[in-house]
Amino acid sequence: MKKFMLSLIASSAIFFNFILPTTVNAAEFISIGTGGPTGVYFVVGNSVCRMVHKEAAE
């Protein structure tokens, strides 16, 4: 009986390992520092932000 339970648990663990998804995409937060709205770095930061969001949507 003990061997049966052990083999049942082991086979269940192997079965669920293949059935359940193995990768989970975690949310990744990126902080981009930019300048004021009238500065050059604000435009650059917005462009980088658009490129990152475009790649994430695909």
| Low-confidence region ranges | none
Q: How many structural domains are formed by the residues? A: 1
Order of SSEs, N→C?
Answer: HH
Report the portion of residues in β strands. under 5%
How would you sum up the global shape?
A: rod-shaped
Calculate Rg over CA atoms: 24 Å
Number of strands: 0
| Biggest beta sheet summary | none
Instruction: Summarize the amount of helix as a percent range.
Output: 55-70%
Give the CA-CA distance, first to last residue.
52 Å
| Oligomeric category | single chain
What do the pLDDT scores average to?
Answer: 80
Structural class: mainly alpha
Please specify the SSE layout and strand pairing.
Blueprint: H1 2-19, H2 40-57
Organism: marine metagenome
Protein name: C4-dicarboxylate ABC transporter substrate-binding protein
Describe, in plain words, how this protein is organized in 3D.
The protein is an all-alpha fold. The chain has one domain. It has helices at 2-19, 40-57. The chain is rod-shaped, with a radius of gyration of 24 Å. 0% of the residues are buried.
